[in-house]
Amino acid sequence: MREARHIKKIEDAEAGRQRNQRLSALVKKKVASVSYPLQQIKITYANQTKGKSYTDEEDRFLLCELAKYGVGKEDTPDKIKADINASPLFLFNWFAKSRVRLTSRGY
């Protein structure tokens, strides 16, 4: 019984790792598909939300950062947060700078 639980955990972790690799490859492909990703990437949103927190330009920046650091890595949100704080794009965006965790954005 215990072995089955351990095997299930290992299989779940492996599936998650494969999913993250697949997502990383898709993000890198999307960013590499255009010459100027910070200006040219077209992002299609699944559902439009009222009072959207990030602009399209900021979303493109986050997508480029995600392509640089990878999906699902433990330190990716911290690295992206540091880049947000250093970027002039977010200079006066106190909402983005004050986010404690970027993982709510799916990183």
Automatic annotation (TrEMBL):
One GO term of the biological process aspect: chromatin remodeling
GO CC terms of this entry: nucleus
UniProt name for this protein: SLIDE domain-containing protein
InterPro entries linked: Homeodomain-like_sf, SLIDE
Gene Ontology MF terms: DNA binding
Gene3D superfamilies, per database record: Homeodomain-like
Superkingdom of the organism of origin: Eukaryota
Domain SLIDE: 5-99
